[in-house]
Amino acid sequence: MKVSVSHKNGMRFEAKTQKSSFIIDCPQISPVEYFLAGIITCSASDIVLLPKNQDKTVTNLVVDGDVERNEDHPRKFNTLHLDYKFNSDGDDIMAARWVMASLETYCSTINTIRDSVVISYSITHNGTKIKKNEKMISGGGSGIDMGEIESCPS
Question: What are the residue ranges spanned by the domains of the chain?
């Protein structure tokens, strides 16, 4: 993947990809807001496509993202909470699996940041909250303490 960004005027930049181009108009929308929107859109597209592969349909999808950042520079993301709201003709277990598949496997933007950002999520499916403030199993920063794990001798 290649992207080229060129300065236009003031605080306007043009981003060109191999497929298209778009204007980044700072400070109307900051690059960090574009970054967060990209993260959310990556996962949202999974929530549309994964059910489609199972002959299911998702409607009324809204994914809200809330980030806490460092106050000092570099102002990196410390936490990210994603709140998924959607309806579907699948059951609650399927809906939760679609979200988890996106977070843990398919969404490359989330998987790019998950070792340095504590990521949590909530899911409202068909009007019912089915998950609330769940933490990603593999997210949580660079030091996850799993405690003592009993294993088979090698």
Answer: 31-135
Question: What one-letter code names the amino acid at 110?
Answer: I
**How confident is the model over 106-136, as pLDDT tens digits?**
999 999 999 899 999 999 999 999 999 999 8
Tracing tokens 């181009």 back to the chain, one arrives at 21
CATH number 3.30.300.20 given to 31-135: yes
Listed residue (22, 99, 30, 3) closest to 58, CA to CA: 99
**Burial track 19-30 (b if 16+ CB lie within 10 A, e otherwise):** eeeeebeeeeee
pTM for the full predicted model: 0.85
Rounded CA-CA distance 10/19 in Å is 25
Contacts of 67 (CB under 8 A, 6+ apart): 36, 77, 78, 79, 80, 81
Bond preceding residue 74 cis, omega within 30 of 0: yes
